[in-house]
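hey m, so remember when u said the tokens were messed up on ur end? i reran from scratch. heres the input so u can diff it against urs
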Amino acid sequence: MTSCIKLKILELRNGTKLEFQKICDINPIRNGYTWEMEYRGSFGDFRIPPLGHWSQDMVKGVYTIFQNGKPVYVGMTKNLATRFNRNYARSWKRSNASPHDTEINKKILETTEAGHLIELYFHNVSDELKRDEVETDLIHHYDPSWNILGRPNESQDSAWGNDNRPIIYGRRYIARKGLTDEERQILKNWKKKHSTSSDKNSKKHESNFSW
């Protein structure tokens, strides 16, 4: 008996349709653990399939978290299983975990505790630049609510180029190649705005573009 692969279709802004394969449901309440951390709140400890039978190129791509059938988060990764099983699921155990990882962990737990269905879907993209482009396009097109910096406004650290193409979300470079002269100037102004008196902090801001 062959297993049925569940797919969802997401569209890029140019109308291109991409197939996303369902990896699993994510539910720390039913298929994992929950932990209460003093001063830090509740966290979930969950797992997605390890995907050990996939090749190194197959685990690279763009993933989407759906809540009740609606995309609420879009991200990209070089290794899907590592991204979820180590970075997100165990962020509460790591002293060096990024605020972003712990925030996604908490959102998954809070949403499943409220009785909502959380599903993980994945689209394989082995080329890094193409992953950037697909992730950026989907965030801009669907404006998923968990991509906190997905809605540009004056209070957010964002820079936008021609045709409303995002260059920066927060302190993360989105379009690192193929910028127009105008967009390079936008990026230059953004870097100047966020420069600090500490060269160390400035370099840290410039390099922190990988979620």
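this time it looks ok to me. The chain is about 30% helix and 25% strand. if urs says something different then somethings off w ur setup not the seq
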